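Structural prep section.
Before we set up the soaks we want a predicted structure of the protein with 6-O-phosphono-beta-D-glucopyranose in place, mainly to decide which crystallisation condition to try first. Input record follows.
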Amino acid sequence: MTETIYLPEDFFLGAAASAWQTEGWKGKKEGQDSYMDAWYKENREVWHEGYGPAVATDFISRYEEDFSYMKEIGLNCYRTSLNWSRFLTDYENAVVDEDYAAYYSRMIDACIRNGVEPMICLEHYEVPQVLMERCGGWNSRHVVDLFVKYAAKAFERFGSRVKYWFAFNEPVVVQTRVYLDGLRWPFHQDSKVWMQWNYHKALATAAVMDAYKKSGMRRSGCKFGTIINVETVYPRTDSADDMNAADKYDLFYNRLFLDPAIRGAYEDGFFELLDRHGILMEYTPGDLALIKANPTDWVGINLYHPNRVKGRMNPIREGAPFHPCCYYEEFDMPGKRMNPFRGWEIYPKIVYDFAMRMKHEYGNKEWFIAENGMGVQNEGQYRDKQGMIQDDYRIDFFRQHLYWAVKAVEDGSNLKGYMNWAFTDNVSPMNAFKNRYGLVEIDLEHNRDRHLKKSALFFRDMIAQRSFSYENDTEYR
Ligand code: BG6
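Run finished without errors. Recording the tokens verbatim:
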């Protein structure tokens, strides 16, 4: 049965990206590498086909073109990051790189001129490499102070034009891949360092919120938030063992950031649990008071796929470093629907389930979907005779996730909008251009030329009509 689904009033539709994944290194000065740049330079063999941040989509030279496409599609907003490592030349004293700041200022003007609201993230994995070398990056309390100084400069330069600021994109990711899982350069495992990074980023979110309030830039309508990749988790069964596995998974990957950002506090017993595992971080009562006093105005949530877990069947080896998987094992559910390219399960109801959690567990805080999308390899195979990629699979993916988003609003969740990852295809950590996510293709064979995909037209029509059609395919055959 085909239904027409109407978008709620004021529900925004946008697309996201980040600085390091799009801009390229044009104009980058000596000493301005981010952690991502350094990883790419030192360990290029793991980056798919050698692509990485060096050129990316060359957004730094081509943003006018990209914004003209956003205007054509009618997007309400565009989220990207300010690249901390490039915005400053001296991180201790927050000395601004005037060349990069001038580009950024022009870019924001172009965005607004095309009718698109800029949403700016202060860090999307772009911690300056110099700080990694000098003090271990976010392991150091000093980096929290430097981040606040950097944020204050950003507010000063762009705060009169940018209404929506975010501390981090996916604050859990870098340290989880590097220090917890030991999967990424520089291949140093240390679970306590992992926890210290998590904590310092939660603290930095509150400290920057505090700085924003004091900056004089938080005019009416402005909002400050952070963007959390919620790993929506489902237990295999309702047995106590499986439920406990899911609960701990949620605690160590989700509540770890949701709680301080929304409630202004970690849950009771969390620090004792960390202590039992030997990973309690250094903190002060003053820090906890700062976190308490500065919950964010709203949160952006990146939602891609569900995670399914069960209680542990196999014991953890004696002496192994702490890993949250001491409480769970992944559960490979029979019959799950897959995106075979990315290897992720597709389960659009994650949107509704998380929305109800926000409503019931997090005081119905305002939130939006900050990333959702479908990565597909070798998309060229879906090109039609006119040269347009016919990404109907992605359109279906959007429809199904948006269906649950609209239903969540109808059922009272304070969900404000939806952003696709990503506006154009771009480089991801390691996967580079392998999984294509864009509404707009980046043609690597031809000068990184831009071409709209069919999904861009779907977005355009949906925005114009404020509705989309949805195939409710629950018929038994
Ligand atoms: C998101 C990140 O979680 O996943 C992005 O915020 C990233 O930075 C995206 O590009 C897609 O990743 P991948 O590995 O599927 O290409």
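Observations: The chain is about 40% helix and 15% strand.
Flagged for discussion at group meeting.
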